[in-house]
Amino acid sequence: MTKFNPRFLIVSLGNPLPKYESLHSAGHFALNGLTKVLKQAPFRETTLGRQACLVSSSPKYTLVQSPTLMNISGPFVARAWQETLKQHGPADLLSLVLVHDELEKDMGIVKLVAWDRSPRGHNGIKSVKASLAATNYPDSPFARIAIGIGRPAARDAATVSSYVLDRISRENRQILEEQVPWEVAKRLSELEEEWRQSMAE
């Protein structure tokens, strides 16, 4: 039996920092803090998926901030996945995890979400799913980690758009960079344990 030694490509979706410092980029803020929680090197600019992007690598986790605008994340994520997959041999175990904002959860709540669950109108997730079919990689678990950002009382499109795209408050940024990463790390451990058990069956 192959030794269980999983690796994870973890890609945050959001509009590029520091230009777009908003709740919609919650995934990027969470990854900023995750490097410290996982005790990895800070992000540095490198080329992945044929684009310059911020990457923090260790033998187990490759953290990547998608460099594109949220709504067109898919092609980059697909290229980054395929490139990372080619770097490992056929016996290596590799999982893809998207980290993204979630309006339907309260600020700071972090949940592991099944890949095939509805995007709930999230255009970044829609773009990735349109560019990358998980069914083509049956041995590689694909998953999502959703980070709650709350939502305004009003549900009209203009109010919601302003809420997610306006400049983030210092308080919310602190939650996303200092508290949320610990919960993201726990969800990664949950995913790894689910994967381990599925292979033992």
UniProtKB/TrEMBL annotation:
It is an enzyme of class 3 (hydrolase). InterPro entries: Pept_tRNA_hydro, Pept_tRNA_hydro_CS, Pept_tRNA_hydro_sf. Its EC number is 3.1.1.29. One of its GO terms (molecular function) is peptidyl-tRNA hydrolase activity. The keyword Iron does not apply. The keyword Hydrolase applies. Pfam families: Pept_tRNA_hydro. It comes from the Eukaryota. Keywords: Hydrolase, RNA-binding, tRNA-binding. Belongs to the PTH family. PANTHER family: PEPTIDYL-TRNA HYDROLASE. This is peptidyl-tRNA hydrolase.
